[in-house]
Specification:
By secondary structure, this protein is α+β, with helices and mostly antiparallel strands. The chain folds into three domains: 117 residues, Acyl-CoA dehydrogenase/oxidase, N-terminal domain (Butyryl-Coa Dehydrogenase, subunit A, domain 1), CATH 1.10.540; 105 residues, Butyryl-CoA Dehydrogenase, subunit A, domain 2 (Beta Barrel); 145 residues, Butyryl-CoA Dehydrogenase, subunit A, domain 3 (Up-down Bundle), CATH 1.20.140. It is 49% helix and 15% strand. Strands 4-5-9-8 form a four-stranded antiparallel β-sheet, covered by helices on one side. A three-stranded mixed β-sheet has the order 3-6-7, covered by helices on one side. Strands 1-2 form a two-stranded antiparallel sheet. A hairpin with a 2-residue loop joins β4 and β5. α4 packs antiparallel against α8, α7 runs antiparallel to α10 and α8 packs antiparallel against α9. The longest helix is centred in the middle third of the chain and has 35 residues. The radius of gyration is 22 Å and the shape is globular.
Length: 395
Amino acid sequence: MPATTAPPADIRPTDFLGIDQLLSDEERDIRDTVRAFVRERVVPHVGDWFEEARIPLELPGELGRLGVLGMHLEGYGCAGATATAYGLACMELEAGDSGVRSLVSVQGSLAMYAIHRWGSEEQKQEWLPRMASGDAIGCFGLTEPDAGSDPGAMRTRARRDGDDWILHGQKMWITNGSIADVAVVWARTDEGVRGFLVPKGTKGFSTQDIHRKLSLRASVTSELLLDDVRLPAGALLPEATSLRGPLSCLNEARYGIVWGAAGAARACFEAALEYSKERIAFGRPIAATQLQQQKLASMALEVNRATLLALHLGRMKDAGRLRPEHVSMGKLGNVNAALDVARTARQVLGANGVTLEYPVIRHMNNLESVVTYEGTADIHALVVGGALTGIQAFR
């Protein structure tokens, strides 16, 4: 007998390929909860935050109550969600703004993950519950003015002094830096690259915010200054003894970006689609013209392709099969695609595309940072190229 087939699904412009059907009920519930929060709490205000170059100090606590801070970690007040569920949350957060997703990524996938993966039990008990609730904020100090893509060239040093450690150096482009209660700082030592927890207020430790940014304005970006900072032995992350420590944290954050970029692209596409049907030119909506339909079709293709790639990597991560090289391909592809979508959407909106009344120019500017941080597009291309050829081309 012929197999019974269901009728074809209706086309939904905002979910053209029916990707919703690939998610479990629990995953959709998590996605919808975060989406509702973003639409209620972020979208109506984020244009003002971007223009004023600020992010509300109460937002981390709200995100903690939402349950997204360190949601993919186990125990210590964390939800223990799947990688896919965490990715869906990142997608919705970045559909609101890259700065909001960055706050969550740095908190959960960099600072909290570093403590969870490489810290002592005492460090976990002290920091993780408060960070999960948003009562304590963390930052991640790896990048330096002269050591971005090559973290092995870092100049920040730590030396033993009896049972204590003395840290001296500088970190740059640190999200959450000046609002953080604790900084995870990476330094060269005679024993390799080690990580240290530096609480706010420690003598010799100070921060300076980086101003005049035209990207990620709804986000705190700072410089960390360490002037012979004395730390007790208990500040050392005991399990991290090489660059593998910080690089493992970066891989966690990059995974969230794969999803987040798809969210930013979707927000730009949806804004362009709605605008094209309302904007009248030459007596009809511009959506009725072939040229604009070509732009819309191209954007829909990239949004759906990016979302499917993110979902595939999420399933691989949940199955324990995801490698850093896979994440590099995801970040490289999805952020570049999101930039293309944002730029195309900007053209559809015409002059309105450069105002903060619409989300497009804000996302476009933000993505210019996202394509650089957590590994530039060039670096991720080299990672993928090395995996393809077996030849490392970094040096």
